[in-house]
Batch of 3 targets.
Target 1
Amino acid sequence: LTGDGWCRKGGYRLGFIVSQKEEELLQPLLQMGHSLFGLEPKISQRGYPGQIVVMNDGRQITRTMYVNNVEYNSKNVVEMLAFLKENSKSRSVPDVIFQSPNSVVASYLKWLFEADGTVFNKGRAKRAIQLKSTSIKLLRDVQLLLLRFGIHSRIIQHETGNNLVIRRGPSIIKYTKHIGFASSIKAAKLSELVKWALEIRRDQKHDEEYEKVLKINYLQEPQTVYDIEIPTSHKFIANGIVSHNTAKSEMLKFCARIAPRGLYTSGRGSTAAGLTAAVVRDKTGIMMLEAGAVVLGDQGLVCIDEFDKMKPEDRSALHEVMEQQSASIAKGGIVATLNARTSILAAANPMYGKYDPFKNITENVALPIPLLTRFDLIFVVRDIPSKEKDRNIARHIIGLHRHSSSETKSLIDIDLFTKYLAYCKKADPLLTPEAEEKILEYYLKMRNVESEEMITVTPRQLGGLIRLATARARLLMKDQVDAEDADRAIFLIQSMLEDAGVDVNTGKVDLGVLQGRPHSEVSKMQLFMDVLKSLEGDNKTPVEEKLFVKELAKTTKFTEEEAKNFIRRMLREASIYESKPGHYNRV
């Protein structure tokens, strides 16, 4: 009914269709209707144009395909089963299914996949179990139900319809074991797919480590178990203490709280007008300028959480703010430039929910390179398990529960600390010759690394060095920025480069990583184009992919797989083009 059926609340008819190819399912379904509800259906056949068959003599014949319409008339049964078939675009898995045991869930999924599902086994990248639906909510519910059996799936959204696909070998095996198909045709296809999955599993070398279960202790009485998960961020706060992940949001909120002029906003709910300025019409009809977060935070701090969730057009409003310290607006007859001398502290999540240490930072974070390079400091905050740290956090949380009546006092009063920061910001220390020499020496030293054809620091980082050294002098309420302040600023920049500016391919510090193009990649790209140029010759002959991959592998800088991936990437970037199938030329 959820798939190929109809059942409308308030009516008296319900039914489903069974295709000609799956007539073997008709009798089992009729027996279910009779045994469960004591109803006899009305069965009719309907034909529609099917496949076009080409005969030996060249004639084309259109075969007519038939479907069996099975319809029941019972108002009581319709009322009972109407929850299974709501509006096709908004329908979902009923709550009663989620509350049912695995045997019921497996049966529900089997018949749902039988109605709207299929099996592909057509070679590499074309092997999958698929469920199609116009309701994305239904597919998400099914995805959740599949996880009961350890089956991982992926949802692909498209204008013509949404698909849930199961591609992984282990998940295909689990689907066969726990759910399967009702019809012999789909069951046979699934059996062939499982053979492939088993072969792949035997061939693969697993890097996972396993531990043997030595003992299972059974509880005498049932106890409550809590499973808490927050979508996207996967962290939660217990009594103000971060119990999982890196606590980026909590750190941002705390910084906004202690800053003399601090504002906190979330990227998901921020717009360009909300960040800079907006023109609004008041009750009298006069156009007025309304300041946004970075303007209100002038000479203060603006904390932006979920920075990667902002829309690109809204995020682009920060380019001028971070470069020119101002926000310009021209709208509704108002042309103005507002001060936005604001420090910005932002936090973003990695793509796919987990930071991949084998990829550079620009491949992990979905942020535009021009905006990323405008930050003075960029650090990767990872949730790495640490026995000692985890023990201390756990003890602290347990201590809070043990002494729930007592309040935890801060080492420094928040109001006093805010006043201290406000007083420090009034200072305007000057650079001493010693500090200038330290900063200049470091800058020139890092620029000399260009002898290895890598850019490590730019004038933008030089400006950041001066700002950081001055900020430290302000914190210590100094009149001058001395050599010690310069050393601390250098330490911060160097720590950032060693954390976020290391090319994972070479293990060397390379600011090109933060600019989206590490030197190792640039040199590979140059080698790639040189090889293609030599193979083309003066006549620009199209180069066959097989020969191209072979020549790239000979350079020892590419494996065959890397060479193929690089070809696809250069095609996407329009650096090369496919002059004819399987042959390439430079643009």
Target 2
Amino acid sequence: MERFENLLEEKLVPNRVLRKGEVVRGRIVKIDDRTAYIDVGYKVEAIMPREELPPQAKEGDEVKGILVKFSGGVPVLSFQRYLKERLYGFLKSAQEKGKFVEGRVEEILDDAYVVNISGLKAILPKSEARQGLRKNSRVVAKIKELSDTKEGLKIVLTEKDFIELIKKRKKERILKQLKVGDVIEGRVIKIDPEKGITLLIKNVLRAFLPKEELSWGRDKNPYNYTEVGERLKVKVKRIPKDGEFIFVSLRELKP
């Protein structure tokens, strides 16, 4: 009987002590329009603002948060503070070492994307992003700016290095498959009447068409053969080892 009374007393008077700043774990028992109520084994349920909840969190899920304050004796938790303290070191290291981080597009604004990185929100300006990103698109980026503000972590991303990496790999694949004598098509991006025509092959590989390779005849004026923006078929003449430019011929396609 005495043992039963002791157990009952433990149930009725929880002896857990919570301290500001500690990580608290609990189970979500209710979510209303503004607040999540979390059973943390304390004498009252802890609360967390709904906008602080992890993505897709629902009643019954386990959640962690930093105890930021007591409001009328009720513990108030912050998931974003927990994430910030857990991930700040990782993000700082990634920024200093120039490493890529991954996330998903969560929201599309007029001039930027909101990217979710393990629950933290980051900003990817559209000027720093690939074209065609949509909601839930995978983002691979470097951290351009990381600062700790009163509102939380400010994270600004850039995909420019990733874009260059994609181009480099695509260019390497093209060069690996390309052979002297192949006929390829490119977009004219520059015309120099003294030297020749520069083309862009599949948006990554530059090809140079010397004016001597325009025709077997006397007309060597590049402007008489094409204009900037047009597409032109040419034959591969030479592929230098550095792969920066390949050299092509137009006249070798003509009888």
Target 3
Amino acid sequence: MEDIQSLSLIEERVLPATNINATIMYSRINATEWILENKADLVVVIPSGFYYNLTSSLSAVAFIYYDPFSMKSEMATAQLKLAFDQLAKEEIEKRLKAVNLTPEFARPIEILGREVSKVEATPASVIGAMILPMMVGVLAVTGAGTFALDMIAGERERKTIEALLTAPITKLKLLMGKYVAMLLLSVLSGISMLISFIFASFLMVSYAIAPSIPSTIPMQETLNASFSLMPSGLNPIAFFLSLAFAIVLAGLTGDGLIVVGASFAKSFKEAQQYTGVVTAGFIIPLISVVYLPPRLFWPFRMLPITSISLLVRDIMVNPGDKAAIITSSIASVLYLVFFLLLSAKLFGREAVVFD
């Protein structure tokens, strides 16, 4: 009878406080097997005597089995713990009242968090502000990287670049044509990346974050918290235009960097080695942006590729800081011009091309 009372207590006072679809099992099951065989995302085991201990001023224990590598399982666990904490809080208040003590007696210190940000944060926008800037930066060195190597070092290896250089067009026009082709691939890669990111964010907030939001939050607030993929208050048109500018900037900068490295290589494989070493030097500070405190952003705005990543972050998280946005933009454009001019000079040097 105690087990039925325990399960009834969970069904009536814990589950209604969550958005978790749950099934009450009155028979014993192997919780570990259920998790490992993906029969359930989470299993709560209520030992015999849970209800008795809770109502007898003793400590009641419940076991939550979950998969630490499943975000949905982790989120559901967090939500269940909140519900159990609320049940424990109510029981503490009841026990304190029985001995004429106030809840504050058992809670001498209370910590209250206050969010401080220049834009309203939602679960999806927080994820976006962490991942999207880094993805745009990575796009710079991966978007059309293989294509760029093949158009310079690959053609030299196949002995076709000589014929191109003797064509009745200037070397600058020839290089511009190659850049247009590389930019097209970079933009397509950027669009694909953006669509994938939006789709992944939608799945994450729909099936992981949204189910873990307490049912006490009004539905409209839940929808806003779940499906807003960018910080509240941003102009969608301005945001996507800025993002498009950053993608084009990243694509051209990365292509220019790769062309510079490939200009010194005699073969495609050799060009891969050169550019691999160079791009690694830009990827390391780019990845560190996610973990840097904001006070260290300024020196990183002066680095190639990383400046573009920080530009995207500034647009999303700090749109009111015009100085930061302008600094990142100017640094990014200057690096783009530098790499384009350097690649044009190297492309036109016969000593480099025919070495």
